Amino acid sequence: MSPQADRQTEAPPREPAPTGAAAPLSNAELARIFYEIGDLLEIKGELVYKAVAYRRVADAIERAPVDVARAYREGHPPKLAGVGEAIAEKLKELAETGRLRYLERLRGEVPRSLLELLAVPGVGPRTVFTLHQRLGVGNLDDLRKAAESGALRSVRGMTERTEQLILAGIHGLERTPTRMRLSQAARLVEKVSSSVAGTPGLEGLEPAGSFRRRLATIGDIDLLAASTEPRRLADRFVSMASVEKVLAQGPHKSAVLLNEGRQVDLMIAPPPSYGSFLVHFTGAKAHNVRLRGIARERGWTLSEHGFARLGADGEPLTGKAAELRTFADEESVYRFLDLPWIEPELREDRGEIEAAMQARGPDGRLPLRHGRGGLPELIELGDLHGDCHVHSDWTDGVYPIEVMADAARARGYSWIVLTDHSVGLGIARGLSPERMQEQRRIVAGLNEGYAREEREGTAPPVTPADGFRILHGVELEIRADATLDFEDDVLAAFDVVVASLHQGRRQTPGQLTDRVLAAIRSPHVDIVAHPSGRMLSGRDELPLEWDTIYTEAARTGTLLEINGSDNRLDLDDERARRARDLGCRLVISSDAHRIVELDFVEWGVAMARRGWIAASDVANTGSRDELLAWVAGKPERVATAASGSRTT
Fold first, then answer.
1. Do the beta carbons of residue 228 and residue 207 sit within 8 Å?
2. What is the CATH number of the domain that holds 305?
3. Residue 411 belongs to domain spanning
């Protein structure tokens, strides 16, 4: 490393890790640590084989069928490819302490600003090392200047096109520089929550703010605690092993910067006021303004501390006349305003207040036994009976078909739709019709095995009454000329056909819309996947004529997907709500390429809940037979829609 990079040669001192039964690191967290070590070694200029060794271990951990850290804690470490004595010691240290001194030393030797360069698409660790050594690039601004000036072209292997791509990548990062995806935020919430769990006096702990409302991306993490010993909780919070810097500490609010560069704020409320604190720190500003307006109309002012009585001058009463109403739970806060409890995902001032008011009686009060008014009965994660979009290693997935299927089966699903890519998506190693037939035979054999286990009573206990089956499907490419990747006779052999648009994105809005309509009007296309094509990491949505899409999908009964990948979340909440309002049915899918990504349906459900979607709006909340019956009706619906169009 150059002298510039050697300014910090030791990891900053940290407080000792607090004692307590903190949850062991997950396989995903362990894998991220070993991937980071590989990156750090390569940025330092170490021999490539060392970095490769750590990445192989990361991959082995990610694929491991057991909880690696827990197994180390329990004294029976699993055998993992690439794990020798030295790495086994590192795994043991991570499992027991949640920290790794070797990683902390590496972080001290490599400036964080160099690691941040890896977020630029196309810039890997070896590129960072080369640019740092040759051009003195030490941060994002240095990289931008080098690209703008043409200096990057002086480095072997870099061209004007490389410079353009890097500048575009930097621009994409700067548009959302501090936002996290939902899975990243959830991991931090879990890490911090497990670190402070068991602190004496702690009676409640919830994430608040945008994460609790499940916005598509999250800034800083807000946590809200109820505690009878706030100073003790604050001490525990700021002394977590993952803390790099303490930003504030006090009995009411503390804030820290974690060693991965994310800020976490902890607000501490007395237990009797926990409800009003949760309401205040969860709702969007507009929602909270509406609540405060209702309170003021009734002679109260609402803050995180509760309801304070107002005097004739509109100001809170003071002295002996002062009155403060506090509530330990959110339901009581809303009831005080004669409203039923409103789910966190709805608190955006998009009609939820008016809907809740419909639960009031003729006298304007909320009856003791009340309904939901106009609020929807939102879908829940447990309502899903299957996943309509799952990949295997036949194309761009990671695991064999049976591994993905077994993982879905263990969730209690009735089915998955196997949707490996069609031949037109070459980058994903799409399958030809012949390969699809070969895959169909594999699926049939697996299904025979599932049926046999169910007959013999050896199926997993969570298997539903109608058993588990793999439905053979395809993620069908919609070509640039508005034709489909397979002919009708090939498509007719699939159980379910999912169509998507990956290529030719620079066409006009009319051309793009016509391509999606061509899929919707096909008698064999059952689902349109990730309809807007957006990527939260930096790809804008397609400029489709959305109401035209929704209307035709409703007419033909073509299902529109809420893709749960937290880099997509597509349809988003507002589009899902509009689609439902125009008569569309939806599916919520994971688009899983590896086992852990089956969990992405949680984020799809979150988008659906934000979009006011009920279980009855989502096709994969029904049985497998109901889904197949809906799919079987597609040709007739298309014919009816076409006949209606000719008539009008």
1. no
2. 3.30.210.10
3. 383-647
Which CATH number covers residue 571?
Answer: 3.20.20.140
Same domain, 310 and 352: yes
Residues 511 and 641 in one domain: yes
Contact 296/310 with Cβ under 8 angstroms?
yes
Tell me the pLDDT tens digit for each residue of 535-567: 887 788 999 999 999 999 999 999 999 999 999
Surface-to-core class of residue 501, CB atoms within 10 Å of its CB (0-12 exposed, 13-18 middle, 19+ buried): buried
Task: Mark whether 121 and 232 lie in a shared domain.
Answer: no
Query: Is a pLDDT exceeding 90 seen at residue 161?
Result: no
Please, which pLDDT band fits residue 99 given cuts at 50, 70 and 90? confident
pLDDT reported for residue 29: 81
Is residue 464 domain-shared with residue 324, that is, in the same domain? no
Residue 593 has pLDDT above 80, yes or no: yes
CB-CB contact of 255 with 264 (8 Å)? yes
Do 449 and 304 share a structural domain?
A: no
Mark whether 544 and 412 lie in a shared domain. Answer: yes
Residue type, 27: N
The tally of domains found in the chain comes to 4
Give the residue carrying structure tokens 């640019």: 131
d(Cα 38, Cα 74) in Å, to the nearest integer?
27
Q: Quick one: which of 405, 381, 388 has its CA closest to 630?
A: 388
Neighbour-count burial of 359, counting CB atoms closer than 10 A to its CB (0-12 exposed, 13-18 middle, 19+ buried): middle
Cα separation, 278 vs 396, whole angstroms: 42
Here the tokens at position 138 are 């030490």
Say whether both 303 and 403 belong to one domain.
no
What is the pTM (predicted TM-score) of this model? Answer: 0.77
- Count Cβ neighbours within 10 Å for each residue of 281-290 and write b for 16 or more, e otherwise: bbbbeebbeb
